[in-house]
Amino acid sequence: MRFFCLYSSDIMIIITSRRGNSVGNKIQDNDSINELGKIIKTTKVLNPILKLLNIDSGIDINKITKEYADLLTLNDDFNMYYHDRGWIAHESLNIDVLKFCVSTAKAGDIDRGEETLIEYYEGELKNFEKYSYRKHFYDRQELLNLAIEDYFSGRYHSSIPIALLSADGIINDIEPTGLFARETDLEVWDSISGHGSGLKSLVSLLSKNRKKTSTDSISLPYRNGILHGRDINYYNKFVAIKSFALLIYLADWIRENDVKSSF
Q1: Long-range CB contacts for residues 172-175, cutoff 8 Å, separation at least 24
Q2: What is the model's pTM?
Q3: Which residue blocks in the chain are alpha helix, DSSP H?
Q4: Using one digit for the tens of pLDDT, what is the confidence trace for 204-257?
Q5: d(Cα 118, Cα 114) in Å, to the nearest integer?
């Protein structure tokens, strides 16, 4: 059983959904999101009847309908604009940050959105201990703390490889093939981070073959190019924070995968 919530100043709707048979083409096609839409439509039909019976449901259905419509495509829009820059939507991503980044991208200022993401994930790094409740992160916490210290000291050359190696090792604890292997199944039913347009697609991008040694600056944490010594000029803030963001995506993915495994 899976829970999905929509928060409103008037009401919090909580619904449950059972595992489906496939992953939709878009995140908005996820079963839990579709079921919530059906509940809102049903409530919209019932509300006038309740009013005729002098029953106050306490639900501002028009407001909730608008909020649902506004939120419906946010994750897909975010991935459309930011995926190729190394960012993906995920379960714990702050909703206000998500909205702001999508709105600025639509306005043609995606660089401003990316600056906001850097600030957001730097804030997450300052509180990274909250992820250590998971054994996969707890075992690596001391090393990751050193890498985070290196990040804030501008030592990107050392923090980036540690973040990438940790990401690979964490998934290797769960999937024997590791994070960057083609045969590793990263799709999770009814998930944001585990959607085909999320972690799976991002890892494919970061696993791109880097066959020639290059001294050009890069903005994506290409795993093979960095760890195999091909992308020599890799050590910058963009690559570093995106390497750490990958770990946060994994934390959400692990939680979603655990839900899947419980069925």
Answers
A1: 173/136, 174/136, 174/254, 174/257
A2: 0.80
A3: 31-52, 61-72, 74-82, 95-106, 110-126, 135-138, 141-152, 156-172, 199-206, 223-227, 237-261
A4: 999 999 999 999 999 999 999 999 999 999 999 999 999 999 999 999 999 998
A5: 6
Distance CA 116, CA 94 (A): 11
Instruction: Say if residues 75 and 192 touch (Cβ distance below 8 Å).
Output: yes
CA dihedral 251, 253, 258, 263 (to 10 degrees): 160
Q: Which residues contact 92 (CB under 8 A, 6 or more apart)?
A: 248, 251, 252
Q: Could you tell me how far CA 6 lies from the centroid of its own chain? A: 18
List pLDDT tens digits, range 169-202: 999 998 888 788 777 888 887 789 989 899 999 9
Return the pLDDT at 45: 45
Cα distance between residue 113 and residue 150, in whole Å? 25
Q: Quick one: how far is CA 16 from the chain centroid?
A: 21
